[in-house]
């Protein structure tokens, strides 16, 4: 299916659907969490799309930054998104709050590379919450935007904490997450 965009594999028809789900030549979807944006395009067009269609996303330069999520007490499901630019690449930082069941909310924090799965393997990221003589740290390999936030949350491959933990680290309803990107 993606031969016109560069895929040169020839597969048996039974193997085709499985490959198409993971093919690096399939179009990239908009990496912003939530289902409102239906944009699809090439990897090279993702940053241009984000800068034009999602102008509210802030980009910080450097491998060590603070991702500030404001008003974490907002009711319901909420997403905070930010970009981090370093090592010649762009990374999308996402904090997503979901209501798991009545009155119980969970936060999921993850870093995605605006790039391929193979490129993502060259990096590591660390998320750290600090405050009140406490520290919570998560270290992992970023996921490609091809995989998306949903896959990371489904597989618990991200920093997960509940409202009580969030309040241990929050300051006036704002949560600062130290984000460090490194090369492997």
From TrEMBL:
Residues 1-55 form the SIAH-type domain. Keywords: Ligase, Metal-binding, Transferase, Ubl conjugation pathway, Zinc, Zinc-finger. The keyword Zinc applies. It catalyses: S-ubiquitinyl-[E2 ubiquitin-conjugating enzyme]-L-cysteine + [acceptor protein]-L-lysine = [E2 ubiquitin-conjugating enzyme]-L-cysteine + N(6)-ubiquitinyl-[acceptor protein]-L-lysine. Pathway: Protein modification; protein ubiquitination. GO terms for molecular function: ligase activity; ubiquitin conjugating enzyme binding; ubiquitin protein ligase activity; zinc ion binding. InterPro entries: 7-in-absentia-prot_TRAF-dom (IPR018121), SINA-like_animal (IPR004162), TRAF-like (IPR008974), Znf_SIAH (IPR013010). One of its GO terms (biological process) is cell differentiation. The keyword DNA-binding does not apply. The SBD domain (substrate-binding domain) mediates the interaction with substrate proteins. It is related to the TRAF family. The RING-type zinc finger domain is essential for ubiquitin ligase activity. Belongs to the SINA (Seven in absentia) family. E3 ubiquitin-protein ligase that mediates ubiquitination and subsequent proteasomal degradation of target proteins. E3 ubiquitin ligases accept ubiquitin from an E2 ubiquitin-conjugating enzyme in the form of a thioester and then directly transfers the ubiquitin to targeted substrates. This is E3 ubiquitin-protein ligase. It comes from Geococcyx californianus (Greater roadrunner).
